[in-house]
Amino acid sequence: MNEWVSKVIELKKDVSGKFDEDVTISLKFDVDSSRKDSDELRLYQFNEDLKEWVELDNIVVDWLAGTVSGTTDHFSTFAVVERKIVQEPGIGAAFTDIQGHWAEKNIEKLAGTGIVNGYIDGSFKPDRTISRAEFTAMLVRALGLTSDGSNTFDDMADHWAKQAVSAAYSNGIIQGYDQRTFAPDDFITREQMAVMVVNALRINQTITNRSFADQDKISTWAHDAVMMATAYGIITGYPNNMLKPKSQATRAEAITVILRATE
């Protein structure tokens, strides 16, 4: 069951109609009543045509500020909702939205293991982007790592993934943007995934025989890790020999990377 964790706010503008460009809406939510381990705070707006609440795009949760932001092309009635995630029972548990998906078999393999979770409506949402915190938590669970409880980054003090990030940091998997910032709610990129997985597996060799059409788009700090991850088949490219290193990873891609890294 979903739970409302903010006031319902109605926003209006002087002239009816949609905006020329999307605008960002940010609402305060009740931090005290929300689960600190929740990664499913979402900003919804009421769709007058459908007569139902729909989720905004580009959701960003800021636990320190106590806000949830999203983008929309028109004003409406808005509210923050905490959606309950449930672990699907049993290996190969059936999700309602993965049939025919390219990652269907990979998702089924990890379903019910505690590494990945589905949603209370029975869906998995394989094409939804995944945050740095979510991927870190999944990788830490897959590897069975534990935390010493120390706080590693200033922006992780009250975050639901604090323990997982601490475990990843102490095991040399992550470094953060700097000594104070991890940006847990930023969506993770494919090259960031590559670095984390290569660090986790402690792969250390020079790969020179890999070539992609967009290889020049790989960040300098991620180049070696991306080459190693692709050489080991952990991360693969797209058609036309594209790697898309800076593209945001999806839940399906994250599941596949973790499965390949741990098999």
What does this structure look like?
The protein has 263 residues and is an alpha+beta fold. The protein contains six helices and ten strands. The strands form three sheets. Strands 1, 2, 4, 5 and 8 form a five-stranded antiparallel β-sheet that branches. The chain has a three-stranded antiparallel β-sheet with strand order 3-7-6, with no helix packed on it. The longest helix has 12 residues. It is globular and about 60 Å long.
* Ends distance: 35 Å
Sheet with the most strands, sense and barrel status = 5 strands, antiparallel
Shape: globular
Taken as a percent bin, the fraction of beta residues is 15-25%
Radius of gyration: 19 Å
Helix content: 10-25%
The average pLDDT score comes to: 84
Number of strands: 10
User: Based on helices, strands and strand pairing, what is the structural class?
Assistant: alpha+beta
Key attributes of the depicted protein:
6 helices; 263 residues; 10 strands; alpha+beta; Cell_Envelope_Struct_Comp; five-stranded antiparallel sheet
What's the layout of helices and strands?
Elements: E1 3-4, E2 9-10, E3 23-28, E4 41-47, E5 52-55, E6 57-62, E7 67-72, E8 77-82, E9 85-86, H1 104-110, E10 118-119, H2 132-143, H3 162-170, H4 190-201, H5 223-231, H6 251-262
Antiparallel strand pairs: 1-8, 2-8, 3-7, 4-5, 4-8, 6-7, 9-10
Helix pairs in contact: 1-6, 2-3, 2-4, 2-6, 4-5
